[in-house]
Design goal:
With 103 residues, this protein is mainly α. It has three helices and no strands. The longest helix has 34 residues. It is rod-shaped.
Length: 103
């Protein structure tokens, strides 16, 4: 019987320790549920704002480059002026030469 008494005493002690552990965990859980975490986002907001300004300046630079590029394309000429004049003059002389052969 002494063994049975020892086992029950040990079991009662273990149950009491378990109950104390559960109570402490419940207290910690209540404290965690009651704790509110406040986040300071002001630093991130300033970083995001500066990044937005930087991206806006990059977009403006790209738009300026695109406008200049489009203007250069519009103003670009495929053939130089002297080549066009030489072609027209040679065409006139060629037509004049052909007409003079038939007349």
């Amino acid at each position: 019987m002494t063994k049975l008494e020892e086992l029950t005493a040990l079991l009662v002690n273990e149950i009491d320790d378990f109950k104390k552990g559960v109570e402490t965990l419940e207290k910690i859980n209540d404290q965690l549920n009651g704790t509110k975490i406040k986040m300071d986002l002001s630093e991130y907001k300033t970083m995001i704002y500066s990044h937005q300004k930087e991206m806006a300046s990059h977009i403006k630079a790209i738009e300026r480059f695109e406008n200049r590029f489009n203007n250069k394309i519009i103003q670009a000429k495929i053939y130089p002026n002297w080549a066009v004049v030489v072609f027209i003059v040679s065409l006139l002389f060629g037509i004049g030469g052909i007409i003079s052969l038939f007349v």
